[in-house]
Amino acid sequence: MRTENIKSIVKTCFLNKEGHIASALSILDFLHELYFNKLTDDDKFVLSKGHASLALYSIFLDKGYITEDQFYSFSQKDSLLGGHPSSKKIDKILLSTGSLGHGLPFCIGLAMAKKIKKETGLIYCLIGDGESNEGTTWESALAASTHELDNLICIMDFNKSGERAIKLNSCEDKFFSFGWDSIVVHNGNDPKEINKALNNIIKNGRPTFIQLNTIKGYGIPIMENNPEWHHKQPSTQEEYEKIINSIQ
Question: What is the pLDDT of residues 86-107, one digit of tens each?
């Protein structure tokens, strides 16, 4: 986990009184590995769980796609960076996401288009376990295997946020039964395990599902697996400093 990224995410949330900190922290390690060690110019990525946008913006800052001033303008009027990412404001974002469940169907279209045009590259889609309560997820899973979209990678941030509503248990078996190759990353916040999974993707006529077993709020003890912090920001300077000092 990149400590400075966490601190910057907490800081912009505190300054602007907006943002899903805990959801961003569970996927921060994955996005770092994807953007710095895996994505090629031919690949595409969609963050379907758009409320975790701060993790993506943090990586964009590291990559130089946005400035520090833009990052700290998060959710302000006329800012490029909203609570959910907008493809109309940043050209690096393919799809404006927010209503959960739309990212994977969109990525099926991208993957099919690449197949038809005989283009190289992979389509990566990051979903949350909570949005997997949406029927579009499973309709998409069936469509992807039917059309043999082995250029499609669906990654689930399995931080068990959705278990307050519906328990999914292991999604590895569910996607496998729908005709996907399935991989489980037992520590979804470990860069080495993430890299290993990404390097084990093979094109064999089947789409690939990767389940990241993550900790929501990873790196900040008070937020880890604490539903209270799903959409909450530090409210006072004292609370902000206490959180900053606790970051691991």
Answer: 999 999 999 999 888 899 999 9
DSSP, collapsed to helix, strand or coil, labels residue 127 as: strand
Tell me, what's the pLDDT at 2?
A: 86
Query: Would strands 152-158 and 44-47 be described as parallel, antiparallel, or unpaired?
Result: unpaired
- Tell me the CB-side half-sphere exposure of residue 55, using CA atoms within 13 A: 30
Strands (E), the chain: 44-47, 123-128, 152-158, 181-185, 208-213
Q: How far is residue 187's CA from residue 171's CA, in Å, rounded to a whole number? A: 15
Angle between helices 3-16 and 21-37 (to 10 degrees): 140
CB 207 within 8 A of CB 149: yes
Domain locations along the chain: 3-246
List pLDDT tens digits, range 185-234: 999 999 999 999 999 999 899 999 999 999 999 999 999 999 999 999 99
Tens-place pLDDT, residues 1-36: 589 999 999 999 999 999 999 999 999 999 999 999
- Mean pLDDT value across the chain: 95
Structure tokens at 110: 């991208």
User: Is the distance from CB of 54 to CB of 26 less than 8 angstroms?
Assistant: no
| HSE of 184, CA atoms in CB hemisphere, 13 A | 12
Q: For residue 34, what are its two tokens? A: 């994807």
CATH superfamily of 3-246: Thiamin diphosphate (ThDP)-binding fold, Pyr/PP domains (3.40.50.970)
Contact 89, 80 (CB under 8 A): yes
Q: Are 161 and 128 in contact (CB under 8 A)?
A: yes
Q: Locate tokens 């996907």: which residue?
A: 180
Q: Is the pTM of this model over 0.85?
A: yes
